[in-house]
Each structure stands twice: as structure tokens, then as C-alpha cells.
């Protein structure tokens, strides 16, 4: 994969997750991608690794990906394959407002290189960082123990509160940047236009269809009805 450009932070470049923005562009792929470790041809749906030092997303075959399945520290981290919904997630309107995000879409992830939680939101310019206080995050974890299971760097709390929606997921980081790419690609004018919101609605419909519900406490997944 080519290296993406940086994430904006209030008009400035931000180093954490800078290279992930390449993955947030339109997802038009070449005829066949190759594993960036062993060079074998890949199917359209394949695994991804995160290169921890550069925060670059690496396309991988299953065999190479599984080598990093249990790796906690090292050059590469395996990005989870599945998103999990949080149907009983607790986040009040007041808590959301305290996060001071300019849009009702965001994802929160712990950055190992930055040694902090980061709040990022999709914008026409790409993924943009908003300040996130440790107190605000600690309160969310206290109310939602499942958040303690989030994998640093590669998994995020994805929030959709647009138009009265209240959707929450533990989502792989590449899924979050797919959402960023949709907004960047389809945004038109000052308000975005109808097309971008249709694409975002379709994105969350697909995510909801495949995400397994997770219990509030985290250890057990809730089976589909």
C-alpha cells in the first residue's frame, strides 16, 4: 500500500495515525492486490496489519496475518476482522457535548505512539483530531466496561449520533477509515449534499448487518435473535 498523507488537526498536520489516511481515500482497488509480506495474490476481501512505527496499513494474506494474531508488541499488529455492536452503550447527551466534537460521527482509539486516547471525526479534509480529556474517556469506560477490551491502535469506539441515531460499535480501525473515505469522496458544498449521507447511511446499514452485539460488561457476545 502507498503511504497516506497526514491527519489534519485544526488546520495542522498531526503525526498520530498520519499514514492511515491513505486507507481513508476512495476504495478503488487494482485488479489484484498482493500480500505486502510474501507477495502472494490476494482476494478482494483480505486481512490488514498495522505497522506500529509508521501507522501504515498493510495488506496481508491469511497465512502472514496469522503470524501476528497473538502479537501485543512488535512491528506489526493484526487488525481485527469483525465489528461488534454495543446495543446497551451508555452515553448521555451531556457527555457527548462535553467531547466538543463538531459532528455527530466520531471514533475514539488509543494511540500507542502518542500514549493517549484520540478522538477523530470524518471531515471533507479527511480524519481530523479533536481534543479528548482523559476524564471524559475514564467516565465512558466506567459506564461501559466493554470499552476496556478495545485493542490499542487497531480497534476504536465508533459513534453515530447523526439525526437522532444512537449507534455504537467496537470497530476495526480500517473500518473507521473507510467511513472517513466515504465522506472525503462524496462530500459536496458546505453541507455535504444528499449523496454523502446516503453513502454514510448505507455504510452503517452494512455494518449493523454484520456486527455481533456485545454485552455491556464485555466478556460474552450476545447472540443474534
Describe the model:
The protein is α+β, with helices and mostly antiparallel strands. The protein contains 5 helices and 12 strands. A 7-stranded mixed beta sheet has the order 9-8-7-10-11-6-12, with helices on one face. Strands 4-3-5 form a 3-stranded antiparallel beta sheet. Strands 1-2 form a two-stranded antiparallel sheet. A hairpin with a 4-residue loop joins strand 7 and strand 8. The chain starts with 6 loop residues before the first strand and ends in a 12-residue tail after the last strand. The N terminus is likely disordered.
Question: What's this model, at a glance?
Answer:
The chain is α+β, with helices and mostly antiparallel strands. The protein has helices spanning 62-66, 93-98, 134-143, 173-186, 193-210, and strands spanning 7-9, 12-14, 47-51, 56-60, 76-78, 84-85, 105-111, 116-123, 126-130, 155-160, 167-172, 212-213.
Question: What brief labels describe this structure?
Answer:
single chain, 225 residues, alpha+beta, 2 domains, seven-stranded mixed sheet, 5 helices, 12 strands, 24% helix, disordered N terminus
Amino acid at each position: 500500500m502507498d503511504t497516506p498523507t497526514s491527519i489534519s488537526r485544526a488546520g495542522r498536520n498531526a503525526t498520530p495515525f498520519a499514514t492511515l489516511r491513505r486507507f481513508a481515500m476512495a476504495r478503488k482497488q487494482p485488479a489484484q492486490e498482493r500480500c505486502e509480506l510474501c507477495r502472494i495474490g490476494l482476494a478482494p476481501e483480505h486481512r490488514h496489519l498495522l505497522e506500529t512505527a509508521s501507522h501504515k496499513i498493510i495488506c496481508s494474506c491469511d497465512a502472514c496475518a496469522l503470524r501476528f494474531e497473538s502479537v501485543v508488541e512488535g512491528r506489526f499488529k493484526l487488525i481485527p476482522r469483525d465489528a461488534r455492536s454495543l446495543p446497551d452503550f451508555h452515553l448521555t447527551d451531556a457527555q457527548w457535548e462535553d467531547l466538543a466534537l463538531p459532528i455527530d460521527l466520531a471514533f475514539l482509539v488509543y494511540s500507542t505512539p502518542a500514549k493517549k486516547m484520540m478522538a477523530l471525526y470524518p471531515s471533507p479534509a479527511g480524519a481530523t483530531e479533536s481534543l479528548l480529556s482523559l476524564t471524559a474517556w475514564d467516565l465512558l469506560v466506567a459506564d461501559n466496561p466493554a470499552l476496556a477490551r478495545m485493542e490499542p491502535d487497531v480497534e476504536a469506539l465508533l459513534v453515530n449520533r447523526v439525526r437522532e441515531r444512537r449507534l455504537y460499535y467496537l470497530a476495526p480501525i480500517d473500518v473507521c477509515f473507510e467511513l472517513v473515505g466515504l465522506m472525503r469522496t462524496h462530500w459536496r458544498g458546505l453541507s455535504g449534499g444528499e449523496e454523502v449521507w446516503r453513502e454514510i447511511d448505507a455504510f452503517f446499514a452494512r455494518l449493523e448487518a454484520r456486527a455481533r452485539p456485545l454485552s455491556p460488561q464485555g466478556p460474552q457476545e450476545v447472540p443474534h435473535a
